[in-house]
Amino acid sequence: MDNDRHMLVQKLKKENAFWSYDNSSIDQISDDELIGKVLIHLDIEEILALFRMFPKRKIRKAWQEQMLSQEPLYHDLNRFFAFMLFDIKNPDRYIRDFKNRRYKALICKA
């Protein structure tokens, strides 16, 4: 797993995904941060490597927190991931319902 993680971090460095990070802190990023960066910046091969490294539930949670919560910024990617990676039959409805629940939770906190 460490080799896969190191390989993903190196590819993310090449993509300048860590432009705002201090170089010494890049190797200590959390699993959720790594998953989110890979989903946003890298290709399907690297995304599939995540599924060898982490449980599907952990990847899905990171996707929801880091990408789905920023809807509509990553709308096309979210639809693709929902359908292809997480077996969600109706991605548009899932995304809409997720957004509505999130907005409702934010309003209730205010």
Order of helices and strands: HHHHHH
Flag low-confidence runs: none
Q: What's the overall geometry?
A: globular
Oligomerization status of the protein chains? single chain
Notes on the protein architecture:
The chain is mainly alpha-helical and 110 residues long. The chain folds into two domains: 1-55, no CATH class; 67-110. The protein is built from six helices and no strands. α1 (2-14) crosses α2, α2 (31-41) crosses α4 (56-66) and α5 (75-85) packs across α6. The longest helix has 19 residues, at 91-109.
Helix and strand topology:
Blueprint: H1 2-14, H2 31-41, H3 44-53, H4 56-66, H5 75-85, H6 91-109
Helix pairs in contact: 1-2, 2-4, 5-6
TL;DR?
This protein has 110 residues and is an all-alpha fold. The protein contains 6 helices and no strands.
List the keywords.
mainly alpha; 110 residues; 0% strand; 2 domains
